[in-house]
Amino acid sequence: MRYKTPKIASIIEWSTLLLSTCLVCFFLLVVLWEIISKGASKLSWEFVFSVPTDGMTKGGVFTPVIGTVLLTMITALFSIPFGVSCAIYLNEYAENNWLTRTIRASIRNLSGVPSIIYGLFGLALFVQALQFGTSMLAAGLTLGLLSLPYIITTTEEALVRIPNSTREAALAIGATKFETIKDVVVPSAMPGILTGVVLTLSRAAGETAPILFTGAAFYINRSTGYLNEEFMALPYHLYMLSTQHQSIEEVRPIAYGTALVLVIVVFLMNLTAFYFRYKYRKNEN
Amino acid sequence: MRTKLSAESLNLSFGTKQVLKSINVSFNEHEITALIGPSGCGKSTLLRSFNRMHDLFSYAHIDGKLKLEELDLYDKTVPVTEIRKRIGMVFQKANPFPKSIYENIAYGLRINNLPHGKDVVEKALREAFLWEEVKDDLKMPATRLSGGQQQRLCIARAVALRPEVILMDEPCSALDPVSTLKIEELITHLKEKYTIVIVTHNMQQAQRIADKTVFMYLGEIKEEGATQDIFNFPKNEVTANYIKGQFG
Amino acid sequence: MRYKTRISLDNLFKIVFKATGLLVLALLGGIFLMLIYNSFSFFLDVRPLDFITGMEWNPTGKTPKYGMLPLILSTTLVTLGAMVIAIPLGIGTAAFIAEYASPRLKNILKPAIEMLAAIPSVVIGFLGIVVLSPRIADMADLSNGLNALNGAILLAIMALPTIITVAEDAIHAVPNTYKEASYGVGATKWQTLRKVVIPAAFPGIIAAIMLGVGRAIGETMTVLMATGNASMFPTGMFDAVKTMTATIAIEMGEVPYQTTHYYALYAIATVLFFMTLIANMLGEYFINKFRKYHAV
C-alpha cells in the first residue's frame, strides 16, 4: 500500500488547486448569473431608450446611457491624444536619462493611485480651480486623467514591438522622424494601440468614484449633452438606485436592469479589444 | 572612373567603443563595390554612416570627411532627408511598409515632393523586375509578398527616388538561393544607372557581382582592390585566411 | 510639402511629444501638491498627532472629532480579510493555470479571469447588497449583512484577477530546467511545485500580493456599498465599518468647500495615497527582483 500513498496525496493536492480555480470561476458565474437572470426581464430596447420617470421608479435608463456614452467620448478625446503622444515620446524620442526614468516612475505610480483620489484631484482642479463646476466636462477630464497611465503603458508596449527596421525603412527614403512615426510606426502599431485604448475606456466607462463629486447627478429631468451641466451615468445610476433611492426595494428590478446594461456595455467594449488583439497577433505571425 | 562616394580619415565610436578606425575609402560611379569581413568588423557601420543612419543614436560619434562627389554629407546646412533621397538603402531583412504594394513606392515619392503617378510607380517596379508579378495586385498589402519579392519591392522603393547611390546591407542573407540569384541579377543590372555598395557575408556573391572588393577587419580596411585580385592574389595574410574560410 | 514645412513640423512635434511626457510629471506632481496643500490647511486646525492617533471620527458633532484611527483600522480589517481569502485562492488558481491546465483549458480560464477583472466595481458592490448581505445576515443572525466580512469577500473577488495574473506570470517564468531537475530526483509534480516552483517564483508571488493589496486599499465603490459605513471603532468582521475611501466618498458630497472637514478628507486621501504607493512600490520592487533573478 505504501506506493499508493503519494498517488492519493497528489490527487488530493491536485484537487485543492482545481477547487480554488473552480471557486474563482464560481464567483464569476454567480456575478453573471445573478445579473443576467434578474436583469433580463427588464432588458428591452424600450428600457434602454426610455428616460427614467416617476422618481425613477418607472421608465428606462436612456439618460444614464447617453451620459455614459458622452462621458466616455470626452475621456477618449482627452486621454487618447495625450496618452499616445506621451508613449511616442517615451519610445521614440526619450533618451535613457533621469528625466525619462522619472516620467516612467510617475506613470507606474499614477496607475496605482486610487480612483477616488483622481476624483478629489478633478474636484480641486477642474471643478474649482478651472471653474468648470460639477459638469460633464470636469468628470470626463477626470476620467481622462485616470485613463492616461494605462493608455501610455499599453501604447508603448505596442510601439516597442515595432522593429527598428521598419523605422529605418522610412528614414532611408528621406522621411523625417515625425513622418516616420505618423505614417509608418503608429499605423503598424495600431491594432495594439486600439486594444489598449478600448480596454482602458471600458474601465473608465464603469468607474464611479472619480465622478462622484465632479458632475454625476442623482436625477436629471431632461436630456443631457451639455458639457457644462451635470449628467447621469450608468454606474452612478446603479449606485444611487441600490443605496440612495427613497424606495430601494421598489426600484430593485430597475437596478438589476441597469447593472445588466452596464455589464453589457463593458463586455462589448472588451470584446472589441479582444478582436483587435486577435487581429494584432495574426498580423505578427 | 569617377569617384562617387568617399570617406576620408573616418573615425566612428559608439560611446567609448571605437568601431571604425581612420577609414579611407572611395567608391566609383557605376560600379558595384562589395564590403566583406567577419561579423563585427564594422562594414555595416561604415555603410550606414554614408546615409547618416547613425544620426538616430546620440551615443554615436563621427569625425572625418564623408563626401558624395563634392558634397559634404555631414555639413550641418545639408538636410539629412536630402542625403537619404540621393543615397538610397536596402536592408538585411526586407522591411516593406505595412501598406499596399503601390503605396510602398508612392509614399517615398510623395514625401519627397516628386511626381508620384501610376507611371512612376510602374517604372520603379519594372526596374526591380517586380512589375510582371504584382501588376494585378497593386492594392494588396506588401507583407503578403514572398521574402524575395519583398526585398525586390524594397529595392524598387529605393530606386523610385532616382538616387545616385544605393547602399545594400546584406540584402540576400534572409533569402533562398533562387531569390538570391534573382536579386544578384537585378543588382548587376542596376549598376548601369547607380553606384552600388553592398555588404555581404557570401564570398561567392562578392565574386559574382562585385567589380571592386574591400576587406575590413576590426574596424579597419585591410585590403581593397579589383574583386578578382583580392580573391585570387590577396596580399594580406588576414584577407587570405578570411577568404579561404578559416574564420568569420 | 515643401522641405521647410516638413522640417518645422518635425521640430514642432518633437516639442509636442515631449510636452505630453512632461504633462505626466505635472499630473503626478499636481496630485501630490493638491494632497499636501489641502492636508496642510487641515493641520493648521487640527494637530497631526490627534489626527493619526485619534480614536473617534465625528466631524459633524458638537465638538468635531478628526481621529482617523477607526478609518485606518477599518481599511486594514477589510483588506486583511480580503487577502486571507484572495491569497490562497489566487495562488492556487495561478498554480493550476500555469502547471496543470491544458492549453485548451487555459484558453477558457484566462479570458474568464479577464472578464472578472472587467466587471465594474459598482456592480460587485451591488451584488454585495443583494446577494451576499442577506446570506451573511442569515448565517450570523444579524439584522443585515453589510459589514467588514461582506466588504472583504467582495474585495477578494476584485483583487483576485490581479493576483492570479501576476502570480501566474511568475510561476510560468520559472525555467523548465528547475522542474526537470526536480523530477529527475524523483519528486512528484506537487512536491516540485511546492519545493521548487513556488520558492523560485516567490518574489513574483509577493509582488502579486502587494499589487492586490494596493488594489484593495484603494477600492471605493464596493466597500462604500457593502460595509455598512458606521464610523465606530471596528471590533470584528461582523461589524459595520467605514473605510478611508468610503469616508471620502460619502462625506465629500456633503461638506461645504474649504472647511476644516473638507480639508480633513484630503488629509485622509494623503494617507491613502501613501499607503497604496508603498504597496505598489513594494510590488514593483519584488517584480524587478524576480526579473533580475531569472534574467540570467
From TrEMBL, chain A:
Record-linked InterPro entries? MetI-like, MetI-like_sf, Phosphate_PstA
Q: Does the keyword Transmembrane helix apply?
A: yes
User: How the protein sits in the membrane?
Assistant: Multi-pass membrane protein
Instruction: Return any one Pfam family short name.
Output: BPD_transp_1
- Which residue ranges does the record assign to the ABC transmembrane type-1 domain? 65-273
- Transmembrane stretches, by residue range? 12-36, 65-90, 110-130, 136-153, 254-276
Key words, A-Z: Cell membrane, Membrane, Transmembrane, Transmembrane helix, Transport
Protein's cellular compartments: Cell membrane
PROSITE patterns noted in UniProt: ABC_TM1 (PS50928)
Keyword Transport appears in the UniProt entry:
yes
Which family does the entry's similarity section mention? Belongs to the binding-protein-dependent transport system permease family. CysTW subfamily.
Provide the protein name. Answer: Phosphate transport system permease protein PstA
What organism does the record attribute this protein to?
Answer: Sphingobacterium pedocola
Gene designation: pstA
TrEMBL record, chain B:
Q: Where is the ABC transporter domain?
A: 5-243
User: Record's Pfam families?
Assistant: ABC_tran
Species source reads Sphingobacterium pedocola
Name listed for the protein in its UniProt record: Phosphate ABC transporter ATP-binding protein
Q: Which UniProt keywords apply?
A: ATP-binding, Nucleotide-binding, Phosphate transport, Transport
Q: Kindly list the GO molecular function terms attached to this UniProt entry.
A: ATP binding
Report the Gene3D superfamilies cross-referenced here. P-loop containing nucleotide triphosphate hydrolases (3.40.50.300)
State the NCBIfam families in the record: 3a0107s01c2 (TIGR00972)
For this protein, the record's PROSITE patterns field holds: ABC_TRANSPORTER_1 (PS00211), ABC_TRANSPORTER_2 (PS50893)
Automatic annotation (TrEMBL), chain C:
Q: Where in the cell is it found?
A: Cell membrane
Domain named ABC transmembrane type-1 is located at: 72-283
One Pfam family here = BPD_transp_1
**Has the keyword Transport been applied to this entry?**
yes
What topology does it adopt in the membrane?
A: Multi-pass membrane protein
The name this protein goes by in its record: Phosphate transport system permease protein
Keyword Cell membrane belongs to the record: yes
Q: Which CDD domains match?
A: TM_PBP2
Give the organism, scientific name: Sphingobacterium pedocola
Q: Please give the superkingdom of this protein's source.
A: Bacteria
